[in-house]
Automatic annotation (TrEMBL), chain A:
Origin species: Caldiarchaeum subterraneum
PANTHER family: CYTOCHROME C OXIDASE SUBUNIT 1
UniProt KW keywords: Cell membrane, Electron transport, Heme, Iron, Membrane, Metal-binding, Respiratory chain, Transmembrane, Transmembrane helix, Transport
Domain named Heme-copper oxidase subunit III family profile: residues: 530-781
Protein name: Cytochrome C oxidase subunit I
Family of this protein: Belongs to the heme-copper respiratory oxidase family.
InterPro entries listed in its UniProt record: Cyt_c_oxase-like_su1_dom, Cyt_c_oxase-like_su1_sf, Cyt_C_Oxase_1, Cyt_c_Oxase_su1_BS, Cyt_c_oxidase-like_su3, Cyt_c_oxidase_su3-like_sf, Cyt_c_oxidase_su3_a-hlx
Automatic annotation (TrEMBL), chain B:
Enzyme class: translocase
EC number(s) on file: 7.1.1.9
Major subcellular location class: membrane
One Gene Ontology CC term in the entry: membrane
Protein name: cytochrome-c oxidase
Organism in which the protein naturally occurs: Caldiarchaeum subterraneum
Keywords for the protein's UniProt record, in alphabetical order: Copper, Electron transport, Membrane, Metal-binding, Respiratory chain, Translocase, Transmembrane, Transmembrane helix, Transport
Segments passing through the bilayer: 20-41, 70-91
Record has Manganese as a keyword: no
Lineage of origin: Archaea, Nitrososphaerota, Candidatus Caldarchaeales, Candidatus Caldarchaeaceae, Candidatus Caldarchaeum
Keyword match Glycoprotein: no
Compartments, record wording: Membrane
Bilayer topology annotation: Multi-pass membrane protein
UniProt domain Cytochrome oxidase subunit II copper A binding: residue ranges: 101-212
Family classification: Belongs to the cytochrome c oxidase subunit 2 family.
Length: 781, 215
């Protein structure tokens, strides 16, 4: 593609530059904040007095649900990723993220996911109204038939695709694209925060993706996973909270670590115990994967397990306590400048302390018997999510704003903003802690239980707090219009992003940054090819692919012809993308000698494939785990051979394993330059894969005839969903394989250059291994 | 209104545990936030204040500071506080989960949107349950449709009502009177009004009602 002028719409639609995408994320997440904030105000108006008639029960439930979902997934995470997109490559001295087009796709999938979920408001029955936790079996079509919930599920799936792409992208970028001399431990705090965040995302999102897939199947195909009394309701809570607890750290880490950078700059001292803080955060992340049971204390789960969860949860407060104390120690002996970013940073720490302490209450299984489902909880999590995380991200936006815009903002208005923000905040959320016994998620409440005053206060506070946001936007707008030029390093920070222009040029640095042995960062001048020409930064396919996914979901849920249009667009886009790939247009230069430990030897794309397969393994692990869970809870289950033919399964196992072998042969051939062997191996793999799918189709048809249909019970639900997901992976593999075969017949792979064949092999073997688990689990026992 | 202590042993124990957390939490919060504020004020920049000796500089990786010893100390402080309150939790949770003997057993079914109570003699009531004062009542809670939570509002205690699963919760109170039972888990449009009356009667009155079979 040719040059696109900077001030055109096409720039924003087709950009793949990390800074442009960061800005898109920022604008989008603030938009979602305003929308979800408006819903919260409606909720607060309804709760001002007992027995108000402002919202109906149904409208109220939609309002709190969409408020919660959007705030968590379409505001707080994306706004952190806005900063991550813009700042992380700068902080490590990279030219862009490792996979710019995937990054653009992450953004568009997020946006279209939000739109499809929001469409629910315009369908009969309205938007999703089950609470953000979407508990089973209320979430099934039997109890909530409205399309709004299915649309939200589609939105979540798009969001999770976006998140998966982002995690892979950031992991590879941070591991592979640091400048020479910037070891992991020397990285600025914010980049560390993002690294930990994406690691947790990689582990926490796939189980949720599995749960949403199962729910989508229940709602669209009529399977009965979550409807079944054999554990359906509990299964959902397990999957949801296995995701849900790490998710709070996913939301917290970018903010908490951005605070680190702000503190260092405005105290002029290094973080107290940086290694300790990082170690504590890693410990917290590991623990966060083991404490989901504290959300299930009142479900009657095993008492011993409950006590273990109590102890583990209280243990998890230790690392966070340590981090906060280390931050306070950072202040000691510093030279603290109380500029706007620092004020918000300190405010955030104070509020997070309170939220952390009330969290310890909830970790007690005994106290939880009383407070689960009350306004005390609402108060607690707003202190962590809004007081802690959101406030810290406001600090971070103020901190990096001069870098992003090239302009300063009014310090006076900034302080005014801070004052109104804090006053509103405290009047809004402190009273909720006095409502220890008031139920949450109720559109109305009776008088006479002592709840009136605190609800009135909270509503007043909500409006004051809401008022602080237009002030924020006004400050940013004024700064853009008429702010003082910021210069490279307005706050006197040390890290790399402050060494380039504000805003940075498209290729970030005019030269190559390096960190020498004494720890000094220099920008060496380079021969001109190091800079990244701007026109390379465009691709139309990320947005069209995301739009296609949007249309396909929309069609599948509401109106089928739309899905056909989506499918056509998808095919066209994938072909376009493949062509771009053949032309090798996208090559983000890595620094010739970067700091790449621990993945020194692994090529960029290969590392990406590994990370992706890792998340896939967790996804299948969750599907298999769910099957085992319901099976152990069921009294009866068809005996082996009763429904599924063992022979048939064995044949398919044989076919698939053989196809792994032919894939290996193809790779071995191209390694020695044997083109015929390559083509034969690839074709054989393709034919075997196809045979596997055909055999499955015949099998499904047969058992369907015999009454083993989608809706015939738990065994059918588990079988169709798990092996169906596997079959979809085989099919996707065949699409990629078709592209590889086409390229192979054009002589596109040589002895030196055949990495795609190798990466495809990794994926294909993975899919085969999954089947090796599925065959015995479903056919033999 | 009866005082918390008069309501039920588990409620008073719950409240004293909550108060323990509240005391320790408030003290911790005040101390830590004071540290934050005091240090900010003490080290804030003002005329004459010098840069610290290890001050950060542009384009220079900051020096490391902080020791492992300090980290261990911090960890121990936080862990010590948590340890104290965990002990309290364990005692309370046993009381909540192990009802004393000699009790009235009532089966509770949550449904969209109400509560059905079944007594040992087969008697059934909806959205209203009567129990005798001074005796232990155990509720066996389940659901016939979606996920609910059976909460005894004044008693500050409750347990989930889950289809396919029975959870129990007990109370015993000396104070006759009317109390509120409310669903505490979002269960659809009727959730906010999914309430029932808990009527605690003098034992003799209860006996008459229970055996009389009247309304
Ligand atoms: C204008 C500011 C805000 C106000 C007035 C507000 C108020 C509320 C209210 C009244 C509820 C309903 C509680 C219930 O009935 O259970 C709620 C729920 C919630 N809020 Fe906020 N909130 C605000 C900002 C935020 C932010 C910034 C976040 C996250 C970053 C957030 C996350 C949540 C979540 C996750 C829920 C739970 C939703 C559910 O129950 O499904 N809120 N909020
Ligand atoms: Cu949790
Ligand atoms: Cu309910």
């Amino acid at each position: 593609m040719g040059e696109i002028p900077r001030n055109s719409l096409r720039r924003w639609l087709f950009t793949t530059n990390h800074k442009d995408i960061g800005i898109l994320y920022l604008v989008t997440s603030l938009y979602f904040l305003v929308a979800a904030g408006a819903l919260a105000l409606l909720v607060r108006i309804q709760l001002t007095y007992p027995n108000m008639g402002f919202l109906t029960a149904s409208a109220y439930n939609q309002a709190i649900t969409v408020h919660g979902v959007v705030m968590l997934l379409w505001f707080l995470s994306p706004i952190a990723f806005a900063l991550a997109n813009y700042i992380v490559p700068l902080q490590i001295g990279a030219r862009d993220l490792a996979f710019p087009r995937l990054n653009a796709m992450s953004y568009w999938l997020l946006l279209f996911g939000g739109l499809i979920a929001a469409l629910g408001f315009f369908t009969p029955g309205g938007a999703i109204d089950t609470g953000w936790t979407v508990y089973a079996p209320l979430n099934t079509a039997k109890y909530s038939p409205q399309p709004g919930i299915t649309l939200a599920g589609a939105g979540l799936l798009l969001l999770m695709a976006s998140v998966t792409l982002s995690t892979v992208n950031f992991l590879v970028t941070i591991f592979r694209m640091r400048v020479k001399g910037l070891s992991l431990l020397k990285m600025p705090m914010f980049t560390w925060g993002i690294l930990l965040t994406v690691f947790l995302m990689l582990l926490a999102f796939p189980p949720f993706a599995a749960a949403v897939l199962m729910l989508a199947s229940d709602r669209i195909l009529g399977t009965v996973y979550f409807l079944a009394p054999e554990g359906g309701a509990l299964l959902w809570t397990h999957l949801l909270w296995f995701f849900g607890h790490p998710e709070v750290y996913i939301l917290l880490f970018p903010a908490l670590f951005a605070l680190g950078d702000v503190l260092v700059t405005f105290t002029k001292r290094p973080i107290y115990g940086k290694k300790i803080v990082i170690a504590a955060a890693i410990a917290g992340s590991v623990l966060s994967l083991m404490v989901w049971g504290h959300h299930m204390f009142t479900t009657g789960i095993n008492p011993v397990w409950r006590k273990i969860m109590t102890v583990l949860t209280e243990t998890i407060s230790i690392p966070f306590g340590v981090i906060i104390l280390a931050y306070i120690l950072t202040l000691v002996g510093g030279r603290i400048r109380l500029r706007t970013p620092m004020l918000f940073a300190l405010g955030s720490i104070a509020l997070f302390i309170i939220g952390g302490i009330t969290g310890v209450f909830n970790s007690s299984v005994a106290i939880d018997y009383g407070v689960r489902g009350t306004y005390w909880i609402v108060g607690h999590f707003h202190f962590t999510l809004v007081g802690g995380a959101t406030t810290a991200l406001v600090a971070a936006i103020y901190y990096w704003w001069p870098k992003m815009s090239g302009r300063m903002f009014s310090e006076k208005l900034g302080k005014l903003h801070f004052t109104i923000y804090m006053i509103g905040y405290l009047i809004l959320y402190l009273p909720m802690h006095a409502l220890v016994d008031m139920p949450r998620r109720v559109y109305t409440y009776p008088a006479g239980y002592g709840w009136e005053l605190n609800n009135l206060l909270a509503t007043i506070g909500a409006f004051i707090f809401a008022l602080s946001w237009p002030i924020f936007f006004l400050i940013l707008y004024k700064s853009l219009r008429s702010g003082e030029p910021a210069g490279n390093n307005p706050w006197g920070g040390w890290s790399l992003e402050w060494l380039t222009k504000s805003p940075p040029p498209p290729h970030n640095y005019d030269g190559e940054p390096v960190v020498d042995d004494s720890g000094t960062i220099r920008i060496t001048t380079l021969p001109t090819n190091g800079g990244h020409a701007y026109h390379e930064h465009y691709s139309p396919w990320p947005i069209t692919i995301s739009l296609a996914a949007f249309l396909i979901f929309l069609g599948a849920i509401l109106f089928l012809p739309v899905a056909v249009a989506g499918l056509l667009l998808l095919v066209a886009s994938v072909v376009g993308l493949a062509k771009e790939g053949l032309a090798e247009k996208f090559k983000i230069p890595e620094a010739p000698e970067g700091a790449r430990w621990p993945f020194t030897q692994v090529e960029k794309v290969k590392l990406g494939v590994w990370m992706f397969l890792y998340s896939e393994a967790v996804l299948f692990g969750s599907l298999i785990g769910s099957y085992v869970f319901v099976r152990l809870n069921s009294a009866a289950w068809p005996a082996p051979g009763e429904v599924l033919s063992i022979t048939n399964g064995a044949v398919n196992t044989f076919i698939l394993l053989t196809s792994s072998l032919t894939a290996v042969l193809a790779l071995a051939s191209v390694r020695v330059g044997n083109q015929t062997g390559l083509k034969a191996g690839l074709l054989a793999t393709f034919i075997l894969g196809l045979a596997f799918l055909l055999n499955k189709a015949v099998e499904w048809n047969e058992i369907f005839q015999h009454g083993f249909t989608f809706s015939s019970g738990l065994p059918a639900a588990a079988f169709y969903i798990t092996t169906g997901a596997h079959g979809a992976h085989v099919a996707a593999g065949l699409v990629v394989l078709a592209y590889i075969i086409a390229k192979a017949f054009k002589g596109g792979y040589t002895r030196e250059n055949h990495s795609t064949v190798e990466y495809f092999g990794l994926y294909w073997h993975f899919v085969d291994i999954v089947w090796v688990f599925l065959f015995p689990l479903f056919y033999l026992i | 209104m009866p005082t918390i202590a008069e309501l039920s042993p588990i409620t008073s124990q719950w409240q004293s545990l909550f108060n323990l957390y509240l005391t320790i939490g408030t003290v911790t919060g005040v101390v830590v936030i004071s540290l934050l504020v005091v240090n900010t004020l003490r080290y804030r920049d003002r005329p004459g204040r010098q840069n610290p000796s290890d001050a950060i500089e542009e384009a220079k990786i900051p020096a490391e500071r902080g020791t492992i010893g300090a980290a261990l100390l911090l960890t121990l402080i936080v862990a010590g506080i948590l340890f104290a309150i965990t002990i309290g939790t364990m005692a309370t949770v046993d009381l909540i989960e192990k009802p004393p003997k000699g009790t009235l057993h009532i089966n509770v079914e949550g449904f969209q949107w109400g509560w059905r109570f079944t007594y040992p003699n087969g008697r059934e009531t909806v959205n209203e349950v009567r129990i005798p004062a001074g005796e232990v009542t155990v509720f066996y809670v389940t659901s016939t449709d979606v996920f609910h939570k059976f909460q005894l509002v004044e008693f500050k205690i409750g347990v989930d009502a889950i289809p396919g699963k029975v959870n129990k919760i007990w109370i015993s109170t000396e104070k006759a009177g009317e109390y509120l039972i409310q669903c505490y888990e979002l269960c659809g449009v009727g959730h906010a009004v999914m309430a029932a009356k808990l009527i605690v009667m003098e034992p003799s009155e209860f006996k008459a009602w229970y055996e009389g079979g009247g309304a």
